[in-house]
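Input set for joint prediction.
Command: fold jointly, output tokens.
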Amino acid sequence: MELFLVLIPVTVVLVLLSLWAFVWSARNEQFDDLDRQAWSILFEEPESRSKPDTDGTDPRAEDEPR
Amino acid sequence: MLDKVRTSLCHHCQAPLSETERCEAQIGGALHSFCCPGCAGAARLIDALALNAFYDYRASCGVTSTPTTERRARDVQDFLPVLVPAAEGGVTLHLLIPDLRCVACVWLLEQVLCRQEGVLKVTVNFARRRLQLRFDDSARLPALVSLIEQLGYSPVPDLPDAGREAAKALRRAQLLRLGVAGLCMMPVMMFAMASYLAGPPTAQNPASGMDPLYESLLRWASLALSTPVVFYSAAPFHRGAWQALRHRQLGMDLPVSLAILAAWVLSVYNTLSFGSAVYFDTACMFAFLLLLGRHVELISREHFEDNADHLLRLLPATVRRRSPCNALEFATVPMHEVTAGDVLQVLPGETIPADGVVLEGSASISEAAFTGEPLPVLRTPGARVLAGALNHDGTLLVQAASAPQQFLLTRLARLQDAAMAYRPRWSLLADRAAGWFIGSVLVLAAGAGVFWHLAGSADAWVIALTVLVVACPCALSLATPVAITVATTTLRRHGVLIRNGAFLERAAATTSVAFDKTGTLTEAQLHVHGVIPLGERSAQECLAMATALERHSEHPIARAFATPTALVATEVEIVPGGGVSGSIDGNACRIGQPAFACPGEPALTPPSQEGLWILLCGPGPLAWIGLQDTLRPDAAAMLETLRRDGLRTTLFSGDPSASGLHLAQALPLDAVQTGMSPAEKIEAVRAEGERGTVMMVGDGINDAGAMAAAACSVAISPRDVLVQNSADATLVTPALQVLPVMLRYARRTRRIIRQNLFWSLLYNLSAIPLALAGLLPPWLAAIGMSLSSLLVVFNAGRLHRMEG
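tokens >
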């Protein structure tokens, strides 16, 4: 039962961490568009399909800010 | 077969290809056909960026069309107001893209724009169709805008709007409150469960139950986590309660706020004084469930907000105004500078920018945004035109009748705002009932506390709290809103938009359904249904000639002609209100109104009164071509289902021709009246109303009166905003089969709400006497309260399924 003394504060800390994560993501507009993210998992990033035939003008070679 | 269909559609925008104007391009190793060079260019651009996967993603989204690339490019000047310096450096461009169809479009835009030089950040919000683009130098604006246009989208400047910003802030604040309440509620309930399971120490055996050290540890942890819920998440309830008190009223927020605060204060007191029990979980759960209900309600209203938003964006940002001193000089001025009396020039293909009167010129104008009638109407000098209508084929000079604030379109958008503020009667009633209920509960709780205190009980205030908690009309006040919210959301998912909260209630009581004909039971799309040759040419030849001529016209009549033909019409001229003239193989040909097609022979009359007949001449009369509306394929099955459900079906048609009667024989209808004026329709609906509750189903402005006269109304895929505004509900998809399903669903919603009200009242009425007698421990009261709320919520959750 002594474990309680550790586990309860750990729970509280975990909740505070998740609260911080939630507030951060809500402030960064991550909950503003729920449709798009649900689909995005189905769309591959073109970067991941390596194609050697991009004749030197590979757009991926450029600095690509996200 | 499928391949054949595919090749006859444009690879990019999926529009049907015409024989003459198609072009082909080698894209991604295969030959594809396109409807226009613009679409081919868009596909080439996508291919060059190695983004061909867009077409596959699009198919997986179930959306098959992309906006076509044929359009008038916007003036770059329009975008300058929405280009603002960004705090992180560079400039941010705010765009609204009304034709963003699916998430594949979002993906495409992000991928394409990310690759452009100088672009720092791309944010696309699909739900709100907004695009935010941050880039380093404002000189890149024209290139970026034209790139988006090249892909086939029509970006519109997203002007800042104080109301929308406020709504966005409200939504975010509410989401934060809800999330905080939810995240804190979970561990608090977990801690509470531990205490409940261990049970309190009893008088016989003080050592039973949980060790006081652990018990107080749990309490302190609960106190820490529930405090933000009580003071941050539940703040709107406290504020509402305070506002109501200041106005000497008993609002719904008062008992909620009081119960949350009382539970918290008593729990804090018991935590500090090692008292019998804490109720932090009660406070948190209560706040969370109520916030959840409010949030879902807010989300379901967003659609209507966006609608009003898009409505106003029909108007152009700038207009060409005639200079007052020189009648030949036109200056481009911003829309908001237009005042009554200004003379504005409107070119073919443009949107009429102002309500006003035509001074010069004539053109076919479609006012589909107002009337739902897609057929353009000829407007000549002296005729009234409305802002937002589309000018098909002529150059007009329009004198504005008022400033933009007074345009019908602007007023419609304001109407929609008012509709959004509507609260369902059920909800109001439940709120009022709950308000009274809580008034008595407050008195009862205080009375019980005083009574037990005078009787010398040490638990007097715990009993008072128990009464307050057990009698909390949480379940009662949730019973209706939760069910309505779930029902509204579910219906929206199935393409039914509810504008009026009372709709579900009235739809559930409906005994009779009245239909309009054109556009409701029929498709309101013309098809060739008969050709009567007058000369030596065969019907097939005549249709080919007609197609060759009509191919050049944008008029809805022209869409009825799709006969494959190699004939090419030259010297084509489109005469507004008349028809099309041109030359085929050297013969001068005309198609259209008899008076236009064959001006020399005024005696020609159509072979039948039914449907629409146009004349083809080349040069003499060649054929009558009959055009007719077709019945929607699922109309008969839908009416049959309604009948099986015991509903009366009637048809009130404004069409004077005999086709209404023909329809009646083909369809299972109980009564048919044709050739009715709007006023007669209203009378007929009222007469039906005396026999029961009538639901009116229509699609056009001519049904608006009848819709208002009926107990409730449904508009079927209206192009018309006014109709959408006057109808209680709108079917977005033209699938008529939804109608009977929706009526059954409304009845099921009513049943579930009644069950909810019954159970919550039963719970409250049976538990209060026990609590008053001091027989109920507070923790059991809290569990009972939570369970009754959960029961109500889960019962409403059954409405998530439309069928069954």
